[in-house]
Amino acid sequence: xxxxxxxxxxxxxxxxxxxxxxxxxxxxxxxxxxxxxxxxxxxxxxxxxxxxxxxxxxxxxxxxxxxxxxxxxxxxxxxxxxxxxxxxxxxxxxxxxxxxxxxxxxxxxxxxxxxxxx
Length: 118
Fold this sequence. Notes:
By secondary structure, the protein is mainly alpha-helical. The chain has helices at about 5-15, 25-35, 45-50, 55-60, 70-90, 115; strands at about 20, 40, 100-105. It has six helices and three strands, in the order αβαβαααβα.
């Protein structure tokens, strides 16, 4: 992505709040430099970053590796990745709608909002 003048303008000169959709740490840091103040992610993006940058996540995935395959393991992976991103995004908190990571946590229920917030 590099420097994106449009996103920088959008986030600094308009009332817009820019959230970046990713789980890739490098892409998130670039997005922050371009004005992103929040991150959204989902199971597909989490698995993509875990497969593409396993060394970045080795420590975060240590406990998850012991879980048996299934929805609980998938949710644990997503929770670990989203939790790390959320800690990073706390530094970007500037008021309403900023400094957060929002993640779809259960890959088997993408449209079940009630279940996802339980």
